[in-house]
Amino acid sequence: MSLEYYVRNVFKKLKDDHFRILGVIESNLTRYEIVPPDVIRRQSGLGEKVDKILSKLHEYKLIWAPRGLEHGYSLNYHGLDILALKSLVDRDVIEGLGKPLGVGKEADVYDALSPKGERLAVKFYRIGRTSFRGYERARTPIADAHTYMVASIKSAAREYQALRRLHPHGIAVPKPIHRNRHVIVTEIFHGIELARIQYLPEPGEILRQILQNMLKAMEAGIVHSDLSAYNVLVTPEGNILIIDWPQWVPPSHPMASSYVRRDVGNLLKFFRRRWGMRELPGDCVGLVEGLVGERFNNFMAKLGWKGANR
């Protein structure tokens, strides 16, 4: 069932005791794969009511019992969603959740309203929906996570950290508002993935914006490390927005230079393939050199890009 279903049909039915039990299970995620019922009873302090509450939460599909009810319970993503939403509502960050704005492999983004009536974007990480293998090979502390949900929480924390550092420097990222667990709240944003766009009136200008923002991000201490045409949005105004920052590394990281060179190379190849860019605007040449740390022609020769800007 969808998150919208849980917001409409489950959230308002939950009482403080339900949230207390969910919180106890959550707090034991790093200690137990499956939290034993006696641990839940002892830590919740709710006595005989616990079994009835656990039964109701299981009925609502906010928790599950992979080895049977008598062995214990684990939180699922819907349970984690409910806990995060409760915190966001209690802290006056959001008042209502709207329709999905986008569904990705590892996260869903929803429209939302603040108590002041401002539109917001709420991103729920969903690592594990496809495969955990990519995160087993990840280049950041996300790889240390031993469950999908812990990986999602770490991803949200890292992305929020990056956004908070980047946005004040005028870098084209969503403005961060708040984070709770695996959820990031930002100002509303709109755009189409660069990879999905077939026509651009000025592709060179979009490329210039991307390279310029990559360089500004490096100067602010952040290397995206996984930048592609799929996490660059083009806004209706013709500007860009760079999203999906959970795998960022500092420029001092031993692989940072390799990631930058790879990402720049992939972007240049994409622009050449999609829009036939045989030659870059002059300021793009300087931006590429500032990012990769070598002469433009030398770098491009390694990519097999012949006859451009020579």
Features:
310 residues, 3 domains, alpha+beta, five-stranded antiparallel beta sheet
CATH superfamily of the largest domain: Transferase(Phosphotransferase) domain 1
Write down the overall geometry.
Answer: elongated
DSSP helical segment count: 11
Average pLDDT value? Answer: 91
Please write the CATH class name of the largest domain: Mainly Alpha
- Label the CATH architecture of the largest domain: Orthogonal Bundle
Strand count, sense and closure of the main sheet? 5 strands, antiparallel
**CATH topology assignment of the largest domain:** Transferase(Phosphotransferase), domain 1
Strand order of the largest sheet: 3-4-5-7-6
Determine the structural class based on helices, strands and strand pairing.
Answer: alpha+beta
Helix content: 40-55%
The radius of gyration is 23 Å
| Helix-strand pattern | HHHHEEHEEEHHEEEHEEHHH
Count every beta strand, where a strand is a DSSP E run of 2 or more residues: 10
End-to-end C-alpha gap: 57 Å
The figure for the number of domains is 3
Q: What portion of the residues fall into strands of 2 or more residues?
A: 5-15%
Which residues form runs of ≥5 with pLDDT under 50?
131-139
